[in-house]
Amino acid sequence: MQKDPLAHLPPEVRNKMREYFLEEAFPLVDQLETDLLSLENENGNLESLQEIINDAFRSAHTIKGSAASTGFGAIAALTHEFETALDVLRTNNKLVSPEKVGVLLEGIDHLRHLLSTVNDEFTDDDSCASYVQRLVETFRLVEFIQSEELAKKSTSFEKTEDIDADLIFQNLSSAELAQVNQELELGASLYSLFWILPENGFALGLDPFVLLYALSDEAKIIRTTPLMDNLPSMAHFDPGLCYMGLSCLVTTSHPVEVLRAIFEFCPDETLIEVMPVKRHQSTTLEPLPGETGAEDFSKSNPVNTNPSKQHKEMIRVKPERLDSVMNLVGELITASNVLTHLQSTLETEKDILSISHRLKTTSDSVNWIVNRLQSDVLSLRMVALDQIFQRMKRTLYDIAKRQGKNVRLQLSGEETEVDKMVADALTEPLMHLIRNAVDHGIEAPEARLKAGKPEEGCITLSAKLEGNTVMINIIDDGAGIDIVRIKDLAVSKGQITREEADHLSDTDSRNLIFGAGFSTANEVTDISGRGVGMDVVRNHITRIGGTVKVDSQLGKGTNITLELPLSLSLFRGLVMKAGGETYVLPLDSVRETTLVQPSECSSMYGRPVFTFRGKILGLVYLTEVMGLPRDQSQDGQLEGWPVVVVESREKQIGLIVDYFESPQDIVVKPVEESLSVGGLLAGAFVMGNGKVALVFDINHLVRSVLDFAQRGN
Questions:
Q1: What is the C-alpha separation between 646 and 609, in angstroms, rounded?
Q2: What are residue 640's phi and psi, to 5 degrees?
Q3: Which of 475, 347, 352 has its CA nearest to residue 409?
């Protein structure tokens, strides 16, 4: 069990440091994975290849240093071997091969597992031993490490000038000198060491006193002296830079390697010397035979000291966005003070018109600030899709390798920003779609060549904004969807009848793939065959108010389009009344509002229907769906039935309401599950008059209305 390097710190400080580490570690692992996936694509460009390897090496080194300094020994050990493997490629980038990249990518999975399973207490798990052994064997690291150690010993322990022992002893007090003699008599060794951090040491998360604490765990510190030679004048002093170092005289019973290990994760620019010495009969101190020399513990690349006890969700926010919100809050406080002043003025001033004018001006100002503040706060929740899109590269890589297919992933519009809740809900559907595109869409290399296509298949993942909607497309140049086969499979599985299949449009036929349990795979594998992929995709997307559309050409490929809302917490909504209650529908799901004359309607299965855009549309009273009494006293006085045409999953319904108001911005407040009416309600909205309006979950509403109509029949 490795000793916890943060044991000397208070628990709250220790936990906070580890929390910071995990917050930074996950993005670094993502970047490391992206770099590794890029290695094969750049195999022909040695200059670009070298740059990618260097970037990957820096990420691994940063994780290693931070993990070691915060007590995550297993993570530090794994990334140390990872770093050594990357150093092999850095030394000779011609060694890059699919096999080596695959082994490194497997290490990414182990890293993520270790990061996601760390507990609050210091641990030093060794669950990755078998993987590390395979990593070593793949890169032939045993000989490499041995040669590196020999090289270190041949250069680090060359003869240098002896320590001026007389000068050391002259500066010691009698108590310090007695302490040295006592430790030496007990068999301890005496060392003189110093370290000077680079000027950017603080920015790298380094602290000379953290090193001092770590040193005190392994040795008895006799004297510590600050090194201030690099301290500039006050005119040139920058508090953000590190100018000092420390010189220590210590005794320890540990080997010199233990002291050197304390400084193992310091960056290249750190100047470090460790000088073992011994006492002779005289008062002079001389270097130990065979151990003369100062060791330069130069390691490549900066170290981030970042930490944690458990990974927390994070949103990276641009500073200018926070500044804007802060300024608006200041303006809002000013406006609030004005309103308070007006309230007190009302009690003494008689000029009501003047106060009314000032009140309107202030009210307009508050409305403007609130609108701006609302926009800025929403922007704080926005995250770019690039991390999710980059993650799909790994999904594609793993499946393509296992199936022996040559596929590349093209990304477009990954800088597009969406609400974090939307982004989180998007990951699993995209993984299923990429897996399906590789497994069912992209043909085997031989089949592609036979069809006159390039051997390498292509999947394009793109995103773009259209108003308040995000459009995401997953396009492959594979075999496309065979509609005839889809319908035959649906009939054989009993999902539809042969008669129904013969009358299905091409669009409806393609939508059969979203049926629960539907699969076109000939056999069940660990990738496909269980019929849960596309069903999961549609359920996840509709749950966040989105839609899925499929377009395909046999032999040419498939295009799947996801339409998603920008935000789930705020949207434009249509407010309407029915049975004395107020309801809200997301405006994106409202196709039209109209007045329908009863004389224009027909009856079908006891339900009113009318022709809407060339289609027969059934009408249902919203009060009936909600189990509310309908006010029939106004029927003869109305010019027509107020009807809201709503669409979900390409199914439309017509809701008859009492009346509807103009659209407005809706801020959704969550409701308890027991109040959601079986999922029918997505939340509540507090209106300007203080009353509460109920917000519909549009997918549940449409399904409930269709079920209600069928039960009525």
A1: 15
A2: 175, 175
A3: 475
What is the per-residue pLDDT across 321-363, written as a single tens digit (0 to 9) for each? 667 776 777 677 766 666 766 666 666 666 677 777 777 787 7
The answer to whether residue 315 is domain-embedded is: no
**Helix (H, G, I), strand (E, B), or coil: what is residue 633?**
coil
Residue among 511, 705, 542 at smallest CA distance from 625: 705
Do 114 and 211 share a domain, yes or no? no
What CATH number does residue 604 fall under?
A: 2.40.50.180
Give the DSSP letter string of 78-129.
HHHHHHHHHHHHHH-GGG--HHHHHHHHHHHHHHHHHHHS--SS-----TTH
Q: Do 526 and 398 fall into the same domain?
A: yes
Cα separation, 480 vs 476, whole angstroms: 8
Angle, CA of 458, 463 and 468, to the nearest 5°: 160
Domain edge (last residue) among 116, 135, 156: 156
Q: Is 140 helix (H, G, I), strand (E, B) or coil?
A: coil
Q: What is the CATH number of the domain that holds 55?
A: 1.20.120.160
Spatial contact of 473 and 414, defined as CB atoms under 8 Å apart: no
Same domain, residue pair 354 and 394: no
pLDDT the model gives residue 151: 39
Residue type, 460: T
Contacts (Cβ under 8 Å, ≥6 apart) of 287: 162, 163, 275, 276, 277, 278, 293
Identify the DSSP state of 569. S
Question: Which phi and psi (to 5°) does residue 3 adopt?
Answer: -75, 140
Are 532 and 490 members of one domain?
Answer: yes
The residue type at 626: M
H/E stretch holding 549: strand 547-553
The answer to whether residue 3 sits within a structural domain is no
Residue 300 lies in a domain: no
State whether 402 and 538 are in the same domain. Answer: yes
Read off the pLDDT band of 692 (50, 70, 90).
Answer: confident
Query: Kind of pairing, strands 457-466 and 407-412?
Result: parallel
The answer to whether residue 159 scores a pLDDT higher than 70 is no
When pLDDT is cut at 50, 70 and 90, the band that residue 158 belongs to is very low
Q: Six-digit token pair at 327?
A: 């300024």
Domain boundary among 516, 545, 565: 565
